[in-house]
Amino acid sequence: MDETMADDNLRARLDKLQNILGKKITLDLSGRSDRVIPGNRETQVPSWEDEHFDLKMRQYETSNDHDAETATYMANPIKSPGTYKDIDSATLKIGQSVDEEISFCPWHAVVHYPARFIGKANKPRAQPFFDRVLEGKTWDFFYLHNPAEPDQKPCLLVPTAQFVGFLKGVNQILATKLVIPGGPNKRLFDLHFGVGGTPRPRYLLRSRDQKKLHIDEWPAANEEDLRVYKDAADVHRELWLSEWEKTKQHSFPDNRGGSYRAEKNREARLQMLSQTQLFLGLQGARDPPGKPVTFICVDIEAIEVAPNPVSEIGIAVVNSERLKGIAAGPSGANWWDFIEAHHIRVKEYAGLVNYRFVQGCPNNFDFGTSVFPRRAELVDTLNTTFAKYANGAHDVVLVGHDIKSDIKYLSTIGFPIDQLPGLIGNVDTQAIYRAWKDGTKSPSLGSVLVDLDIRYKNLHNAGNDAVYTLRAMVAIAVVGLHSAQDAQLLEPS
Questions:
Q1: Which of 42, 129, 351, 404 is buried deepest, with most CB atoms within 10 A?
Q2: Mean pLDDT calculated for residue range 80-96
């Protein structure tokens, strides 16, 4: 279709719209620019704003609700703002980087813009547009890995020009004045990468009139990006990291509070990991602050048949005072020998072995000798065992893998472990593992040990599991250190 025919077609559709609205609508075609893919002059590539306009026209023609405000938006295509350079992604291939002059904003900042940057009066009016942010729109998505953590999930970005265009479209319908926020918050929506040859966002996909964003698999970090980042001048790496940190500087709660709660939970996990490192003397000083800390790990095994009575209790203990002046070594392995272990088996259930859901091995305690109190003696046995470690002389930190489950099981037998003398807090190895990996899944103890390259055997024996959980805690605390200064603490003085 040549340019004359295309304009005639557009005018015909405008005439139809005018007849419906009963008023004249004008469209300035002088500013339209149809871009051509090099090497194929007959294939015209519409601009991002033109695609919005054409799609809105098609939606209106098939809609039963011919709202006058929406029609005004449809008949006035969004013009790309001059302050943000737009991009034509039609010629881009997946994984291709773009000009460093292109400004980007994180997709999560776009989605949660109303929660943070729209006032109470206009937020209810604007929120529906953001709830359906993909519908009737075209977005070009880019991804960017952090070269310092290439295995982590990349950041999802869109060109700032497209978001500004989206806001202008909403403003046309609602007669609002939504803009990129000013002041420090502007930085989040105006990110530039690539100074000094450092990594730039890479093209991922184009979403056109979708209800939901589908990303089946994230591309792996580009090897060239890792190389150029490593070879870049210090000042350029620092500039790159300063931009990267802006993508993480805000949390954006949604209407249901889900994202807000998720971010708060993430912060709590990170705090738990930091506190564990502090208690172990791994953050800036070899001596933990205050009293020495005794870490007491518990693991419970219950019979898999209802009423699921407790059959094994594993206890593993290490005291921070005994670790003073000893280099932790790789994954903290030099500290493992200081772990004391106990394995308590209820005599009435000693002949039962789980096999339906997990393969139990109660007879294979590898770190000492099991004891067999009767069910009626179990609480007394626990009181005697814990009295050796939780007697007020030291602060106590309770450790477990999904520790809430273990605490609940102990309460069913009448042992309130959360009332131990000197107890100052809990460490959940599932939680600190997720903090270290920045993950969303709660892994099994076995998978955590595999990831930490810790050899193990005879899991699902409560005594063994308690020991391995404490080893995992130490390993996560050690490998979770980030700075070279912290890493020096692992070496002998």
A1: 129
A2: 72
Which 3-state string (H, E, C) describes the chain? CCHHHHHHHHHHHHHHHHHHHCCCCCCCCCCCCCEECCCCCCCEECCHHHHHHHHHHHHHHCCCCCCHHHHHHHCCCCCCCCCCCCCCHHHCCCCCECCCCCCEEEHHHHHCHHHHHCCCCCHHHHHHHHHCCCCCCEEEEEEECCCCCCCCCCEEEEEHHHHHHHHHHHHHHHCCCCCCCCHHHHHHHCECCCHHHCCCCEEEEEEECCCCCCCCCCCCCCHHHHHHHHHCCHHHHHHHHHHHHHCCCCCCCCCCCHHHHHHHHHHHHHHHHHHHHHHCCCCCCCCCCCCCEEEEEEEEEECCCCCCCEEEEEEEEEEHHHHCCCCCCHHHHHHHHHCEEEEEECHHHCCCCCCCCCCCCCCCCCCCCCECCCHHHHHHHHHHHHHCCCCCCCEEEEEECCHHHHHHHHHHCCCCHHHCCCEEEEEEHHHHHHHHHCCCCCCCHHHHHHHCCCCCCCCCCHHHHHHHHHHHHHHHHHHCCCCHHHHHHHCCC
Residue ranges, comma separated, of all CATH 3.30.420.10 domains in the chain are 265-489
Q: What is the rounded CA–CA span in Å between residue 468 and residue 473?
A: 9
Instruction: Give me the pLDDT at residue 143, please.
Output: 94
Taking the CA atoms of residue 226, residue 227, residue 232 and residue 236 in that order, the dihedral angle to the nearest 10 degrees is -20
Q: Please give the Cα distance from 85 to 463 (Å, whole number).
A: 62
CA angle centred on 201, ends 166 and 168, rounded to 5°: 10
Q: Which residue has the tokens 């103890």?
A: 445
Q: What is the pLDDT of residue 290?
A: 65
pLDDT in tens, 17-59: 555 444 455 554 444 433 333 333 333 334 444 444 344 434 4
pLDDT digits (tens, 9 = 90+) for 223-267: 999 999 988 888 888 888 888 888 875 544 444 445 567 777 888
Interatomic CA distance for residues 53 and 72, integer angstroms: 11
What's the confidence (pLDDT) of residue 258? Answer: 53
Q: Classify domain 265-489 at the CATH class level.
A: alpha beta
Tell me the sheet residues that pair with 299. 314
d(CA 147, CA 145): 6
Beta-carbon count within 10 A of 224 CB: 10
For the cut 70, the answer to whether the pLDDT of residue 191 exceeds it is yes
Phi, psi of 449 (to 5 degrees): -65, -40
Mean pLDDT for 317-331 is 91
Residue 350: is it exposed, middle or buried by C-beta count within 10 angstroms (0-12/13-18/19+)?
A: middle
In Å, how far are 177, 327, 493 from 282, measured between CA atoms? 51, 10, 14
Mean pLDDT across 292-318: 94
